[in-house]
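Recall the central idea of this unit: under ordinary conditions, the amino acid sequence of a chain determines the structure it adopts. In this exercise we apply that idea directly, starting from the sequence alone.
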Amino acid sequence: MWLSLFRLPLPHEADRLLGGCARCDSNCGRCFLILSKSVFRLPVVFLCSVCVATLPAAAQSPAQTQRKLKIYISVDMEGVAGVVTADQLGPAGFEYERFRHFMTNETLAAIRAAKESGASDVVVSDSHGNGESLLIDEFPKDVRIVRSWPRHGGMMAGLDASFDAAFFIGYHASTTNMRGVRAHTFSSAHLTRVALNSNAVTEGEFNASYAGALGVPVIFASGDDAAMEELKSRLGKIETAETKKSLGFHSAETITPEASCERITAGVKAALKRLGDFKPYVVKTPVALEISFKNYTPAEMLSYLRSVQRVDSHTIRFVGKDMAEVSDFVDVVDGYSAELTP
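Accordingly, the structure predicted from this sequence is:
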């Protein structure tokens, strides 16, 4: 039985060189490359157009048998159009409720574009602040949403190897970047640097490394110009949507929420059109994680753990066997408090 996954017409010269049709030995110049799986486990065969017509209907029509896309979307808020200060970013801010709608709308724009491009399964990770910023009642009923903390995988919780691609919505630049609106890495209050294998990373690069370890490529991101430049310099030519130009840590020249949604829609569709161009972003294992703190004491206390080395007065080093272990370590460092309840 044939299970056709992909089909390409071959030029006449290639047809001859490859010996023609596997069934009738024809050199008609109308052969197709069939990537397939059969009872003989033969990965690649060549069939002429006549013999292709004799195959079962499923094999003749790759579009009918092509697996639907499964998409993961990690959503932050600092990179959303119009966001510049804490006024938009937390429940105490006077614009927060309005900007929850804008954040939600940018995510919905990505979802609609993904579905129009063939996605049938979408998981969204609410990854800003308390993890409860997205307005979940506005999402399509078939979308699943990851909310609140703590959770294994952090901003990528719920991701596994079954996903075809990941998007980042509303992302920002790193704490080591001299540009970028609200630029930080995981904690603007406590951390001054996060590095993987001696390379200072953004949240986006860290999360792409987590996805890459699972074989999932990040293919699209939205946020301010500094964040997008930083991400592309690390991940390569991913599709991006610039939502604003940074004028400082708390200022920007921003496009409107509606224009941002339009850019995100176009960017997602462009990314999915060339899905085959992207590769997972993989860091070498074991993974050496370095975290630098604004204060001395966290580095001192963490160095009491036998698995942690204190590199300098403000920095600790932890080596994890993979990105999953490193991600869990970061979540403990960033989220643990003796006052946690219940």
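The chain has three domains: 3-65, 69-190+199-277, 287-335.
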